[in-house]
């Protein structure tokens, strides 16, 4: 069985103003361990809802969401979440933020784990800084490092680089790929950027709205490491663009 399974999943919200909102309709999806999956789609097509159900923050209205065969009904340390807002604890410094989950769970050698991540993310020298002293890009590196410190099976990333400038965004994409190639966690990464999806993903799920559903599942065949100006990569990007635009 695949590591992640969405089995005929539908999600309906009861909204006080809009009534019945069908956020997702009949999602059937299997994701293998270690894959990098990007989720691309227009606003309101249910991308965040899909991640929330896997994260255990929302329940499917019908169908099942499984991780390693178990329903994901409640949040757990096996699923790490990174949002667009950096969500660091402002009263803790970089090292303490990264160690936070480990300290809460009394993990042995939390300092060793945190230091490895500090090195991995190039945060040496910033251990004692507080979130208000960090740039957006730096904050997001700390947020990702903090999530990875808990050694989740799956990383759920909801537009994590949307709030940083274009150059920092490319830098963070490369950094995430470097870390992923070492750790090979399964990643589900929501983005509005076709370029970002093509650059990062093994496979891209192209969603449509009203009701939210998967229109295409596209394998990105360009070899890694990819280069943004490489002909093979640009061809994949152009194909994805056509599929995405064609669907809306
Ligand atoms: N808690 C909620 N109550 C009512 N409706 C909701 C709730 N959460 C999401 N929705 C609705 O469900 C639909 C899907 O929302 P969702 O946030 O999953 O989409 P999205 O693709 O992530 O959108 P965006 O790209 O704008 O973040 C939208 O119509 C949204 O308004």
Automatic annotation (TrEMBL):
Ranges of residues in domain ABC transporter: 4-234
GO molecular function: ATP binding; ATP hydrolysis activity
Signal peptide start and end residues: none
Keywords: ATP-binding, Nucleotide-binding, Transport
Superkingdom of the source species: Bacteria
Coiled-coil stretches noted in the UniProt entry, renumbered to this chain: none
SUPFAM superfamilies: P-loop containing nucleoside triphosphate hydrolases
Pfam families in the cross-refs: ABC_tran
Keyword Magnesium: no
Gene3D superfamilies linked: P-loop containing nucleotide triphosphate hydrolases
InterPro entries attached to this UniProt entry: AAA+_ATPase, ABC_transporter-like_ATP-bd, ABC_transporter-like_CS, ABC_transporter_ATP-bind, P-loop_NTPase
Record's keyword annotation contains Transmembrane helix: no
Family: Belongs to the ABC transporter superfamily.
Protein name: NitT/TauT family transport system ATP-binding protein
Lineage: Bacteria, Pseudomonadati, Pseudomonadota, Alphaproteobacteria, Hyphomicrobiales
């Amino acid at each position: 069985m695949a590591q992640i399974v969405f089995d005929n999943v539908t999600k309906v919200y009861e909204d006080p103003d809009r009534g019945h909102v069908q956020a997702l309709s009949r999602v059937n999806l299997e994701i293998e361990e270690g894959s990098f999956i990007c989720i691309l789609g227009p606003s309101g097509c249910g991308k965040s809802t899909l991640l929330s159900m896997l994260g255990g923050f929302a329940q499917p209205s019908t169908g099942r969401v499984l991780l390693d065969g178990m329903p994901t009904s409640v949040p757990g340390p096996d699923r790490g979440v990174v949002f667009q807002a950096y969500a660091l604890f402002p009263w803790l410094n970089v090292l303490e933020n990264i160690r936070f989950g480990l300290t809460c769970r009394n993990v042995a050698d939390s300092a060793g784990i945190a230091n490895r991540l500090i090195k991995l993310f190039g945060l040496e020298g910033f251990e004692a800084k507080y979130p208000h002293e960090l740039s957006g890009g730096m904050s997001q590196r700390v947020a990702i490092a903090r999530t990875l410190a808990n050694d989740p099976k799956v990383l759920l990333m909801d537009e994590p680089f949307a709030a940083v400038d274009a150059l920092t965004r490319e830098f963070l994409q490369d950094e995430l790929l470097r870390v992923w190639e070492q750790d090979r966690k399964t990643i589900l990464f929501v983005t509005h950027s076709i370029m970002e999806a093509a650059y990062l993903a093994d496979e891209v799920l192209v969603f449509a709205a009203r009701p939210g559903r998967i229109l295409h599942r596209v394998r990105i065949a360009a070899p890694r490491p990819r280069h943004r100006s490489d002909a093979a990569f640009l061809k994949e990007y152009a194909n994805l663009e056509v599929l995405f635009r064609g669907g809306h």
